[in-house]
Write a structure and sequence with these properties.
three-stranded antiparallel beta sheet; 7% helix; methyltransferase; four-stranded mixed beta sheet; S-adenosyl-L-methionine; Beta-clip-like; chromosome; 139 residues; 2 domains; globular; 32% strand; SET domain-containing protein; Post-SET_dom
Protein backbone atom coordinates (compact mmCIF):
# COMPACT_ATOMS: atom_id res chain seq x y z
CA UNK A 1 0.00 0.00 0.00
CA UNK A 2 1.48 3.36 -1.04
CA UNK A 3 1.36 6.79 0.52
CA UNK A 4 -2.09 8.41 0.28
CA UNK A 5 -2.39 11.20 -2.28
CA UNK A 6 -1.86 14.71 -0.97
CA UNK A 7 -5.37 16.12 -0.41
CA UNK A 8 -4.12 19.72 -0.66
CA UNK A 9 -4.86 21.19 -4.10
CA UNK A 10 -3.30 24.60 -3.41
CA UNK A 11 -0.37 25.68 -1.25
CA UNK A 12 -1.49 26.60 2.28
CA UNK A 13 0.84 27.80 5.03
CA UNK A 14 0.32 28.25 8.75
CA UNK A 15 1.22 31.44 10.60
CA UNK A 16 0.03 33.54 13.54
CA UNK A 17 -3.52 34.81 12.94
CA UNK A 18 -5.06 38.14 13.92
CA UNK A 19 -8.29 36.17 14.51
CA UNK A 20 -7.05 33.46 16.87
CA UNK A 21 -3.83 31.53 17.47
CA UNK A 22 -2.52 29.96 14.27
CA UNK A 23 -4.30 30.42 10.96
CA UNK A 24 -4.27 28.87 7.49
CA UNK A 25 -3.05 31.24 4.76
CA UNK A 26 -3.05 30.98 0.97
CA UNK A 27 0.47 30.22 -0.24
CA UNK A 28 -0.49 30.97 -3.84
CA UNK A 29 -3.49 32.51 -5.67
CA UNK A 30 -6.58 30.34 -5.16
CA UNK A 31 -9.38 30.76 -7.71
CA UNK A 32 -12.96 31.04 -6.47
CA UNK A 33 -15.19 27.98 -6.41
CA UNK A 34 -12.22 25.58 -6.34
CA UNK A 35 -11.37 22.92 -3.77
CA UNK A 36 -8.48 24.15 -1.62
CA UNK A 37 -7.92 20.84 0.15
CA UNK A 38 -9.04 18.59 2.98
CA UNK A 39 -8.72 18.18 6.71
CA UNK A 40 -7.91 14.62 7.72
CA UNK A 41 -7.66 13.10 11.17
CA UNK A 42 -8.74 10.37 13.52
CA UNK A 43 -12.25 9.02 12.93
CA UNK A 44 -14.14 8.91 16.23
CA UNK A 45 -17.75 8.64 17.38
CA UNK A 46 -19.76 11.81 17.89
CA UNK A 47 -20.04 10.82 21.56
CA UNK A 48 -16.24 10.69 21.85
CA UNK A 49 -16.02 14.03 19.98
CA UNK A 50 -18.30 15.70 22.53
CA UNK A 51 -16.31 14.15 25.41
CA UNK A 52 -13.04 15.49 23.96
CA UNK A 53 -14.56 18.91 23.23
CA UNK A 54 -15.78 19.21 26.82
CA UNK A 55 -12.22 18.79 28.11
CA UNK A 56 -10.46 21.16 25.70
CA UNK A 57 -10.55 24.90 25.10
CA UNK A 58 -9.24 24.58 21.52
CA UNK A 59 -10.59 21.77 19.44
CA UNK A 60 -10.16 20.66 15.86
CA UNK A 61 -13.12 18.31 15.53
CA UNK A 62 -15.65 18.22 12.70
CA UNK A 63 -18.80 16.08 12.80
CA UNK A 64 -19.21 14.36 9.43
CA UNK A 65 -22.60 12.80 10.20
CA UNK A 66 -24.80 11.98 13.20
CA UNK A 67 -22.49 9.11 14.25
CA UNK A 68 -18.95 10.02 13.13
CA UNK A 69 -16.52 12.89 13.59
CA UNK A 70 -12.97 13.69 12.53
CA UNK A 71 -10.49 14.85 15.19
CA UNK A 72 -7.74 16.74 13.32
CA UNK A 73 -5.77 17.65 16.47
CA UNK A 74 -2.78 15.53 15.38
CA UNK A 75 -3.20 16.01 11.63
CA UNK A 76 -0.40 17.47 9.50
CA UNK A 77 -2.93 19.10 7.14
CA UNK A 78 -2.44 22.89 7.20
CA UNK A 79 -6.17 23.55 6.72
CA UNK A 80 -6.84 22.20 10.24
CA UNK A 81 -5.94 25.72 11.40
CA UNK A 82 -8.75 27.35 9.37
CA UNK A 83 -10.30 29.96 11.66
CA UNK A 84 -13.92 31.05 11.86
CA UNK A 85 -15.13 34.29 10.29
CA UNK A 86 -18.63 35.70 10.10
CA UNK A 87 -17.66 36.84 6.56
CA UNK A 88 -15.64 33.87 5.30
CA UNK A 89 -13.81 33.43 1.99
CA UNK A 90 -14.17 29.63 2.04
CA UNK A 91 -16.76 27.00 2.92
CA UNK A 92 -16.37 23.64 4.65
CA UNK A 93 -18.21 20.75 2.99
CA UNK A 94 -18.62 17.16 4.10
CA UNK A 95 -18.41 14.88 1.04
CA UNK A 96 -18.36 11.08 1.30
CA UNK A 97 -17.08 11.31 4.88
CA UNK A 98 -14.29 13.74 3.96
CA UNK A 99 -13.90 17.28 5.30
CA UNK A 100 -13.21 19.50 2.28
CA UNK A 101 -12.65 23.26 2.05
CA UNK A 102 -13.62 25.24 -1.07
CA UNK A 103 -12.86 28.88 -1.95
CA UNK A 104 -16.02 31.01 -2.19
CA UNK A 105 -14.13 33.69 -4.13
CA UNK A 106 -10.60 34.34 -5.35
CA UNK A 107 -8.16 34.26 -2.42
CA UNK A 108 -4.89 36.21 -2.72
CA UNK A 109 -1.51 34.86 -1.59
CA UNK A 110 -1.00 35.65 2.11
CA UNK A 111 -4.74 36.04 2.78
CA UNK A 112 -6.09 34.04 5.72
CA UNK A 113 -8.49 31.27 4.71
CA UNK A 114 -11.64 31.37 6.86
CA UNK A 115 -14.92 29.43 7.14
CA UNK A 116 -18.15 30.11 9.00
CA UNK A 117 -18.24 27.37 11.65
CA UNK A 118 -22.04 27.63 12.00
CA UNK A 119 -23.33 25.94 15.15
CA UNK A 120 -20.56 24.85 17.50
CA UNK A 121 -20.20 23.04 20.80
CA UNK A 122 -19.56 26.49 22.35
CA UNK A 123 -23.32 27.19 22.13
CA UNK A 124 -22.77 30.96 21.70
CA UNK A 125 -20.57 31.26 24.80
CA UNK A 126 -17.24 31.84 23.03
CA UNK A 127 -16.48 35.38 21.86
CA UNK A 128 -15.94 35.67 18.11
CA UNK A 129 -12.76 37.59 17.25
CA UNK A 130 -13.08 37.65 13.47
CA UNK A 131 -13.48 41.44 13.34
CA UNK A 132 -15.60 41.23 10.18
CA UNK A 133 -18.26 43.88 9.51
CA UNK A 134 -21.52 42.52 10.93
CA UNK A 135 -19.73 40.00 13.19
CA UNK A 136 -22.23 37.97 15.25
CA UNK A 137 -19.99 38.37 18.30
CA UNK A 138 -20.10 34.74 19.48
CA UNK A 139 -19.63 31.15 18.42
Amino acid sequence: MGTPANPQKYAVTNAPSRIDGTGAFAGEPIPGRRKIGEIRGETISVYEAWERARKLERIMIVEVNERRAIDASRSADPLRFTNHSCRPNAVLRIRQGRVEIYAMRDIAPGEEITCDYGETHHEGKLTCRCGAPGCRGAL
